[in-house]
Structure formats: C-alpha cells, structure tokens
Design brief:
By secondary structure, this protein is mostly helical. The chain has helices at 13-17, 22-29, 33-40, 48-58, 62-66, 69-79, and strands spanning 7-8, 46-47. 55% of the residues lie in helices and 5% in strands.
Length: 88
C-alpha cells in the first residue's frame, strides 16, 4: 500500500512573506516563481515538504501558514474566475 501525500493550502503565507519578492523566495527554495504565486494566491496546495520549507524560510511554523485556511483560501477558490475553456 502506498503512502498518501496530502497537500495543504497556506492562506497565512502572504502575511508571513510580507514585502519579500516572490522571485527571491522562489530562488531561495529552488522552485519557480509561478509555483510561489500559485501558493500565495491559494490556487494550489503545498506538499508537506514545501510547507515545511516555506515555514522555515518565513521563520514560523506550518500551523502559522495554515491559519485562516477556511476563510481565506476557500473564499479565494470560490471567487476565482471560471476558465473560458469549453464555452461557445
């Protein structure tokens, strides 16, 4: 039986990154800027490894980054514009 890998949304990430540039964060963690942007804007969940890396980078706990998940990320996901794909 395989190991199930969970992803978590990090609504507190924007708050804890503050004014730091997304490019600098991406370079420091060895990921693309678009990956960081997707996480900040709650368009994608983070793997446990990424969540831990971001928490270390910000000097906080993963719990701090997850705080507010119900209100911030889920609201962001519901209000995201629908894709134009498949529309006539």
């Amino acid at each position: 039986m395989g190991v199930k890998v969970e992803t978590v949304y990090l609504p507190g990430l924007r708050l804890h990154l503050g004014e730091r540039d997304g490019t600098a964060v991406a370079e420091a963690l060895g990921v693309s800027k678009s990956s960081i942007s997707l996480l900040i804007n709650c368009h994608r969940g983070a793997s446990l490894h990424m969540a831990l890396s971001l928490a270390r980078y910000c000097g906080v706990t993963v719990e701090d980054l997850v705080a507010g998940q119900q209100s911030t990320c889920h609201q962001s996901i519901r209000s995201a514009p629908r894709s134009a794909a498949g529309r006539s």
